[in-house]
Amino acid sequence: MENSLSDRQKMILDQVRARGQVGIEELSQIHDVSPQTIRRDVNELCATGVLRRVHGGVELPGSENLLYTSRRMMNESAKRAIGGVFAELIPSGASLAVSIGTTPEIAIQSLSARSDLMVVTNNLNIALIASDRADWSVRIPGGAVRPGDRDVLGPQVEAFFARYQVDFGVFGVGGVSEDGSLLDFTEEEVAARMAILRNCRRSVLLLDHTKFGRSAHVRGGHLRDLDVVICDRAIPAHHATALISRGAQLVIAEEQA
């Protein structure tokens, strides 16, 4: 099959294989062609089953998540833009429960100017970042560490988050379905995220635009449950309307910049 691909299509396939997911606009810039040309290439690749379209981009098929180190590099500039907006929301002296995921990790890095934070997390990457600050306090649960992801999941994690009532619950998701349901890859990931949602005064979802329409097979929570949604680009209009109509705060990092 790959012998029938154009040179550009082969390069697109290699780039998505290396990173897991790439945006149409980024591919357009890399290959110095119009987004319409990239879409034609991508549509042909998707028709063969080697790639799958997501909102604003293309990814590898299948519902398994990528390795943490690969996910950290995906859409990194978008995640840092989200982190910059997130930092404006968090005052010194706040308490935060923070979930697994690369976008929350990068968002916590953006809080370097804040003092006296308490960070409650099952994400060891975040715990290490926070523990470098002498004026921050860090709480983590016990349990087995997932190889590669460097996080802890399980019933004890749900009980751990339930012991705290924090100012901000901060989390990402694996995907958002067309009906606004929040999706992740395992039941344990969803259970930990829902425990954070139940035990915070203000919930904050951090996600880049590629999560809309992205497949993940475990459902838990809905956009309507959230207080704040921060995304790098404009989200699908029906989701934006639903959030704004119920009084949630929707912040688009691209517009803030």
Features:
single chain, 257 residues, alpha/beta, Arc Repressor Mutant, subunit A, Rossmann fold, 2 domains, 7-stranded parallel beta sheet, 3-stranded antiparallel beta sheet, 11 helices, 13 strands
Explain what this protein looks like in three dimensions:
With 257 residues, the protein is α/β, with parallel strands linked by helices. It folds into two domains: 2-62, Winged helix-like DNA-binding domain superfamily/Winged helix DNA-binding domain (Arc Repressor Mutant, subunit A); 70-256, Rossmann fold (3-Layer(aba) Sandwich), CATH 3.40.50. 40% of the residues lie in helices and 21% in strands. It is built from eleven helices and 13 strands. A seven-stranded parallel β-sheet has the order 6-5-4-7-10-12-13, sandwiched between helices. A three-stranded antiparallel β-sheet has the order 1-3-2. The radius of gyration is 19 Å and the shape is globular. The termini are far apart. The mean pLDDT is 89. Pfam families: DeoRC, HTH_DeoR. Residues 5-60 form the HTH deoR-type domain. This is DeoR family transcriptional regulator.
Shape verdict: globular
Could you state the order of secondary-structure elements as H and E? HEHHEEHHEHEHEHEEEHEEEHEH
The tally of beta strands, per DSSP, is: 13
Number of domains: 2
- Which class of secondary structure composition applies to the elements? alpha/beta
- Rounded to the nearest angstrom, the distance between the terminal CA atoms is 43 Å
Specify the helix fraction band. Answer: 40-55%
**What characterizes the major β-sheet?**
7 strands, parallel
Q: Which CATH first-tier class of the largest domain would you pick?
A: Alpha Beta
In the CATH classification, which architecture of the largest domain applies?
Answer: 3-Layer(aba) Sandwich
CATH level-3 fold name of the largest domain: Rossmann fold
Computed CA radius of gyration, to the nearest angstrom: 19 Å
Strand content: 15-25%
In round numbers, the mean pLDDT is 89
Strand order of the largest sheet: 6-5-4-7-10-12-13
Count of alpha/pi helices: 11
Indicate the low-confidence ranges by residue numbers: none
